[in-house]
Write a sequence for this structure.
Protein backbone atom coordinates (compact mmCIF):
# COMPACT_ATOMS: atom_id res chain seq x y z
CA UNK A 1 0.00 0.00 0.00
CA UNK A 2 1.98 3.00 -1.21
CA UNK A 3 1.08 6.17 0.63
CA UNK A 4 2.05 9.83 0.60
CA UNK A 5 1.53 10.01 4.36
CA UNK A 6 4.58 9.47 6.57
CA UNK A 7 4.07 7.41 9.67
CA UNK A 8 6.39 7.71 12.69
CA UNK A 9 8.73 4.84 13.57
CA UNK A 10 7.45 4.87 17.15
CA UNK A 11 3.78 4.94 18.17
CA UNK A 12 3.90 6.76 21.49
CA UNK A 13 0.77 8.94 21.66
CA UNK A 14 -2.20 9.93 19.52
CA UNK A 15 -1.80 13.54 20.56
CA UNK A 16 1.19 13.72 18.20
CA UNK A 17 -0.48 12.07 15.17
CA UNK A 18 -2.28 13.94 12.40
CA UNK A 19 -5.72 12.99 11.16
CA UNK A 20 -4.09 11.67 7.96
CA UNK A 21 -1.74 9.39 9.91
CA UNK A 22 -4.65 8.08 12.00
CA UNK A 23 -6.71 7.45 8.87
CA UNK A 24 -3.82 5.70 7.15
CA UNK A 25 -3.57 3.30 10.08
CA UNK A 26 -7.34 2.79 10.30
CA UNK A 27 -7.61 2.06 6.56
CA UNK A 28 -4.95 -0.62 6.82
CA UNK A 29 -6.50 -2.03 10.02
CA UNK A 30 -9.92 -2.16 8.32
CA UNK A 31 -8.39 -4.34 5.56
CA UNK A 32 -6.81 -6.68 8.07
CA UNK A 33 -10.04 -6.89 10.05
CA UNK A 34 -12.01 -7.72 6.93
CA UNK A 35 -9.49 -10.41 5.97
CA UNK A 36 -9.69 -11.95 9.44
CA UNK A 37 -13.48 -12.05 9.20
CA UNK A 38 -13.28 -13.74 5.80
CA UNK A 39 -10.76 -16.27 7.10
CA UNK A 40 -13.13 -17.15 9.94
CA UNK A 41 -15.77 -17.92 7.34
CA UNK A 42 -13.38 -20.28 5.56
CA UNK A 43 -12.19 -18.24 2.58
CA UNK A 44 -8.44 -17.83 2.12
CA UNK A 45 -7.25 -14.26 2.76
CA UNK A 46 -4.00 -12.96 1.22
CA UNK A 47 -0.90 -14.42 2.87
CA UNK A 48 0.33 -11.90 5.44
CA UNK A 49 3.12 -13.88 7.06
CA UNK A 50 5.67 -12.43 4.65
CA UNK A 51 5.15 -8.92 5.99
CA UNK A 52 7.21 -9.29 9.16
CA UNK A 53 9.01 -12.57 8.53
CA UNK A 54 12.42 -12.56 10.22
CA UNK A 55 11.54 -9.60 12.48
CA UNK A 56 11.60 -9.96 16.26
CA UNK A 57 8.97 -8.31 18.42
CA UNK A 58 9.31 -8.22 22.19
CA UNK A 59 6.36 -7.39 24.44
CA UNK A 60 7.39 -5.87 27.78
CA UNK A 61 4.51 -5.43 30.20
CA UNK A 62 5.21 -3.93 33.61
CA UNK A 63 1.46 -3.89 34.37
CA UNK A 64 -1.28 -6.49 34.03
CA UNK A 65 -2.96 -7.05 30.71
CA UNK A 66 -5.32 -9.51 29.03
CA UNK A 67 -6.45 -8.04 25.72
CA UNK A 68 -3.57 -5.75 24.77
CA UNK A 69 -0.73 -8.19 25.27
CA UNK A 70 -2.44 -11.17 23.67
CA UNK A 71 -3.69 -9.20 20.72
CA UNK A 72 -0.25 -7.68 20.05
CA UNK A 73 1.23 -11.18 20.13
CA UNK A 74 -1.47 -12.64 17.87
CA UNK A 75 -1.07 -9.67 15.52
CA UNK A 76 2.72 -10.06 15.34
CA UNK A 77 2.52 -13.83 14.75
CA UNK A 78 -0.10 -13.45 12.06
CA UNK A 79 2.40 -11.19 10.24
CA UNK A 80 5.11 -13.84 10.49
CA UNK A 81 7.22 -12.17 13.21
CA UNK A 82 9.04 -14.00 15.99
CA UNK A 83 7.50 -12.95 19.27
CA UNK A 84 9.13 -12.93 22.66
CA UNK A 85 7.25 -12.14 25.79
CA UNK A 86 9.44 -10.46 28.41
CA UNK A 87 8.53 -11.57 31.94
CA UNK A 88 9.34 -8.84 34.43
CA UNK A 89 9.41 -11.09 37.49
CA UNK A 90 11.60 -13.69 35.81
CA UNK A 91 14.02 -11.07 34.47
CA UNK A 92 16.92 -9.05 35.87
CA UNK A 93 14.48 -6.22 36.65
CA UNK A 94 13.82 -8.28 39.77
CA UNK A 95 17.59 -7.99 40.49
CA UNK A 96 17.49 -4.20 40.22
CA UNK A 97 18.30 -3.61 36.55
CA UNK A 98 16.91 -0.28 35.33
CA UNK A 99 14.34 0.07 32.55
CA UNK A 100 16.86 1.73 30.25
CA UNK A 101 19.52 -0.95 30.77
CA UNK A 102 16.91 -3.65 30.29
CA UNK A 103 15.71 -2.29 26.95
CA UNK A 104 19.24 -1.59 25.71
CA UNK A 105 19.98 -5.26 26.24
CA UNK A 106 16.82 -6.37 24.44
CA UNK A 107 17.82 -4.06 21.62
CA UNK A 108 21.26 -5.67 21.45
CA UNK A 109 19.64 -9.10 21.36
CA UNK A 110 18.01 -7.98 18.12
CA UNK A 111 14.50 -6.68 18.81
CA UNK A 112 12.96 -4.88 15.84
CA UNK A 113 10.05 -3.59 17.92
CA UNK A 114 9.39 -3.25 21.63
CA UNK A 115 5.78 -3.10 22.78
CA UNK A 116 5.88 -1.43 26.18
CA UNK A 117 3.31 -1.09 28.98
CA UNK A 118 4.47 0.70 32.10
CA UNK A 119 2.86 2.35 35.14
CA UNK A 120 4.93 5.54 34.63
CA UNK A 121 3.65 8.09 32.11
CA UNK A 122 6.40 8.75 29.57
CA UNK A 123 8.24 5.42 30.02
CA UNK A 124 7.80 4.36 26.34
CA UNK A 125 9.31 7.69 25.22
CA UNK A 126 12.30 7.06 27.48
CA UNK A 127 12.64 3.59 25.94
CA UNK A 128 12.43 5.03 22.41
CA UNK A 129 15.36 7.33 23.20
CA UNK A 130 17.47 4.42 24.45
CA UNK A 131 17.02 1.90 21.63
CA UNK A 132 17.30 1.40 17.91
CA UNK A 133 14.08 -0.66 17.73
CA UNK A 134 10.63 0.81 17.07
CA UNK A 135 8.65 1.37 20.24
CA UNK A 136 4.90 1.03 20.58
CA UNK A 137 3.20 2.33 23.70
CA UNK A 138 0.78 -0.28 25.07
CA UNK A 139 -0.36 2.02 27.89
CA UNK A 140 1.76 4.33 30.08
CA UNK A 141 0.29 5.30 33.42
CA UNK A 142 -2.58 7.73 33.03
CA UNK A 143 -1.02 9.24 29.90
CA UNK A 144 -2.04 7.38 26.71
CA UNK A 145 -3.03 4.01 25.29
CA UNK A 146 -2.80 4.80 21.58
CA UNK A 147 -3.82 1.44 20.11
CA UNK A 148 -6.92 1.45 22.35
CA UNK A 149 -7.98 4.85 20.99
CA UNK A 150 -7.40 3.59 17.45
CA UNK A 151 -9.34 0.36 17.90
CA UNK A 152 -12.27 2.25 19.41
CA UNK A 153 -12.25 4.61 16.44
CA UNK A 154 -12.09 1.66 14.02
CA UNK A 155 -15.15 -0.03 15.56
CA UNK A 156 -17.11 3.24 15.47
CA UNK A 157 -16.04 4.15 11.94
CA UNK A 158 -17.14 0.74 10.68
CA UNK A 159 -20.60 1.25 12.20
CA UNK A 160 -21.07 4.83 11.11
CA UNK A 161 -18.89 5.25 8.02
CA UNK A 162 -17.54 8.47 9.50
CA UNK A 163 -17.10 10.01 12.93
CA UNK A 164 -17.73 13.48 11.58
CA UNK A 165 -20.36 15.25 13.72
CA UNK A 166 -21.00 12.25 15.95
CA UNK A 167 -21.08 12.68 19.73
CA UNK A 168 -19.25 10.22 21.95
CA UNK A 169 -19.69 10.33 25.73
CA UNK A 170 -16.88 8.90 27.90
CA UNK A 171 -17.98 8.28 31.46
CA UNK A 172 -16.07 7.12 34.51
CA UNK A 173 -12.62 7.77 35.94
CA UNK A 174 -11.36 10.35 33.46
CA UNK A 175 -8.58 11.56 35.75
CA UNK A 176 -6.61 8.32 35.83
CA UNK A 177 -7.54 6.89 32.44
CA UNK A 178 -5.08 6.68 29.55
CA UNK A 179 -7.96 5.34 27.44
CA UNK A 180 -9.88 8.59 27.96
CA UNK A 181 -6.93 10.70 26.85
CA UNK A 182 -6.16 8.66 23.73
CA UNK A 183 -9.84 8.64 22.78
CA UNK A 184 -10.29 12.37 23.26
CA UNK A 185 -7.35 13.02 20.90
CA UNK A 186 -8.31 10.38 18.36
CA UNK A 187 -12.07 10.93 18.16
CA UNK A 188 -11.82 14.70 18.05
CA UNK A 189 -9.17 14.58 15.30
CA UNK A 190 -11.57 12.41 13.29
CA UNK A 191 -14.33 15.03 13.60
CA UNK A 192 -16.39 13.71 16.54
CA UNK A 193 -17.54 15.74 19.54
CA UNK A 194 -16.36 14.24 22.82
CA UNK A 195 -18.12 14.70 26.12
CA UNK A 196 -16.71 13.37 29.39
CA UNK A 197 -18.45 12.79 32.71
CA UNK A 198 -17.86 11.13 36.04
CA UNK A 199 -17.65 11.73 39.78
CA UNK A 200 -16.35 15.27 40.40
CA UNK A 201 -13.10 14.06 42.00
CA UNK A 202 -12.36 11.95 38.91
CA UNK A 203 -12.63 14.78 36.35
CA UNK A 204 -9.28 16.58 36.04
CA UNK A 205 -9.32 20.33 36.04
CA UNK A 206 -8.76 21.80 32.59
CA UNK A 207 -9.60 18.57 30.69
CA UNK A 208 -11.61 20.71 28.23
CA UNK A 209 -8.28 21.96 26.84
CA UNK A 210 -7.78 18.54 25.24
CA UNK A 211 -10.87 19.14 23.10
CA UNK A 212 -13.90 17.87 25.01
CA UNK A 213 -16.79 19.19 27.08
CA UNK A 214 -17.68 18.09 30.61
CA UNK A 215 -21.14 16.79 31.59
CA UNK A 216 -22.28 17.25 35.20
CA UNK A 217 -24.36 14.08 35.44
CA UNK A 218 -25.17 10.92 33.53
CA UNK A 219 -28.30 12.40 31.96
CA UNK A 220 -26.33 15.32 30.55
CA UNK A 221 -23.62 12.92 29.33
CA UNK A 222 -26.01 10.54 27.58
CA UNK A 223 -28.62 12.88 26.13
CA UNK A 224 -28.22 12.93 22.36
CA UNK A 225 -24.96 10.90 22.41
CA UNK A 226 -24.33 8.50 19.51
CA UNK A 227 -22.15 6.25 21.67
CA UNK A 228 -21.14 5.97 25.29
CA UNK A 229 -17.86 4.49 26.50
CA UNK A 230 -17.77 3.40 30.14
CA UNK A 231 -14.43 3.41 31.96
CA UNK A 232 -13.33 1.51 35.03
CA UNK A 233 -12.16 3.28 38.16
CA UNK A 234 -8.36 2.86 38.03
CA UNK A 235 -7.92 1.81 41.66
CA UNK A 236 -4.29 0.89 41.00
CA UNK A 237 -3.50 4.55 40.29
CA UNK A 238 -5.44 6.12 43.15
CA UNK A 239 -3.75 6.58 46.48
CA UNK A 240 -6.30 8.61 48.42
CA UNK A 241 -9.78 7.97 49.75
CA UNK A 242 -11.74 10.40 47.56
CA UNK A 243 -13.27 7.51 45.70
CA UNK A 244 -16.95 6.70 45.51
CA UNK A 245 -17.82 3.15 46.62
CA UNK A 246 -18.86 0.65 43.94
CA UNK A 247 -22.56 0.88 44.88
CA UNK A 248 -22.56 4.63 44.93
CA UNK A 249 -20.76 4.72 41.62
CA UNK A 250 -23.08 2.29 39.87
CA UNK A 251 -26.12 4.25 41.08
CA UNK A 252 -24.86 7.58 39.73
CA UNK A 253 -22.68 6.69 36.73
CA UNK A 254 -23.27 2.99 35.99
CA UNK A 255 -24.92 1.93 32.74
CA UNK A 256 -27.94 -0.35 33.13
CA UNK A 257 -31.21 -0.86 31.27
CA UNK A 258 -32.80 2.07 33.10
CA UNK A 259 -30.01 4.61 32.61
CA UNK A 260 -29.73 3.60 28.96
CA UNK A 261 -33.19 5.01 28.39
CA UNK A 262 -31.50 8.41 28.47
CA UNK A 263 -29.60 7.44 25.30
CA UNK A 264 -31.00 7.60 21.78
CA UNK A 265 -32.33 4.15 20.73
CA UNK A 266 -29.63 3.36 18.21
CA UNK A 267 -26.70 4.63 20.31
CA UNK A 268 -23.80 2.23 20.91
CA UNK A 269 -22.23 1.12 24.18
CA UNK A 270 -18.49 0.55 24.59
CA UNK A 271 -15.94 -0.44 27.24
CA UNK A 272 -12.19 -1.04 26.85
CA UNK A 273 -12.23 -3.87 29.42
CA UNK A 274 -11.76 -5.22 31.97
CA UNK A 275 -15.44 -4.73 32.85
CA UNK A 276 -16.57 -4.84 36.45
CA UNK A 277 -20.08 -6.16 35.81
CA UNK A 278 -22.64 -4.32 37.88
CA UNK A 279 -20.33 -1.35 38.51
CA UNK A 280 -19.58 0.49 35.24
CA UNK A 281 -22.05 -1.61 33.30
CA UNK A 282 -24.68 -4.27 34.00
CA UNK A 283 -24.42 -7.69 32.34
CA UNK A 284 -27.55 -7.13 30.24
CA UNK A 285 -26.09 -3.92 28.79
CA UNK A 286 -22.71 -5.55 28.17
CA UNK A 287 -24.35 -8.39 26.29
CA UNK A 288 -27.03 -6.35 24.51
CA UNK A 289 -27.08 -5.95 20.70
CA UNK A 290 -26.02 -2.31 21.10
CA UNK A 291 -22.79 -3.34 22.85
CA UNK A 292 -19.63 -3.01 20.73
CA UNK A 293 -17.38 -4.51 23.39
CA UNK A 294 -16.41 -7.75 21.59
CA UNK A 295 -16.08 -5.92 18.30
CA UNK A 296 -13.61 -3.55 20.01
CA UNK A 297 -11.51 -6.59 20.94
CA UNK A 298 -11.63 -7.86 17.36
CA UNK A 299 -10.60 -4.40 16.08
CA UNK A 300 -7.68 -4.55 18.53
CA UNK A 301 -5.89 -7.32 16.66
CA UNK A 302 -6.29 -5.56 13.30
CA UNK A 303 -5.17 -2.18 14.66
CA UNK A 304 -2.08 -3.76 16.23
CA UNK A 305 -1.24 -5.53 12.96
CA UNK A 306 -1.49 -2.17 11.18
CA UNK A 307 0.59 -0.39 13.84
CA UNK A 308 3.36 -3.00 13.58
CA UNK A 309 3.38 -2.83 9.77
CA UNK A 310 3.54 0.96 9.69
CA UNK A 311 6.16 1.39 12.43
CA UNK A 312 8.31 -1.39 10.93
CA UNK A 313 7.85 -0.11 7.35
CA UNK A 314 6.37 -3.36 6.04
CA UNK A 315 4.96 -2.68 2.63
CA UNK A 316 1.42 -4.03 2.19
CA UNK A 317 1.09 -4.29 -1.59
CA UNK A 318 -2.40 -5.74 -2.01
N1 LIG B 1 -7.35 -1.98 29.72
C1 LIG B 1 -7.36 -0.54 29.78
C2 LIG B 1 -6.00 0.00 30.20
O1 LIG B 1 -5.05 -0.74 30.29
C3 LIG B 1 -8.47 0.01 30.62
C4 LIG B 1 -8.48 -0.38 32.06
O2 LIG B 1 -7.58 -1.08 32.55
O3 LIG B 1 -9.43 0.04 32.73
O4 LIG B 1 -5.88 1.19 30.40
Amino acid sequence: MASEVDFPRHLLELEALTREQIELLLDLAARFKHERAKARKGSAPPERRELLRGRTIITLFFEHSTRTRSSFEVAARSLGADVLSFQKDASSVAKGESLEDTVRNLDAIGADALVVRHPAAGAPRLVARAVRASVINAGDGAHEHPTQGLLDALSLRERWGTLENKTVAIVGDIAHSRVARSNIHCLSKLGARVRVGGPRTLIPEGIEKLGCTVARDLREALTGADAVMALRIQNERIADARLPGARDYSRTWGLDARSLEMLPRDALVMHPGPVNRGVEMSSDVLESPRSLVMDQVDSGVAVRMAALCLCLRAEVKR
User: Anything to note?
Assistant: The CA atoms of residues 188 and 194 lie 7 Å apart.
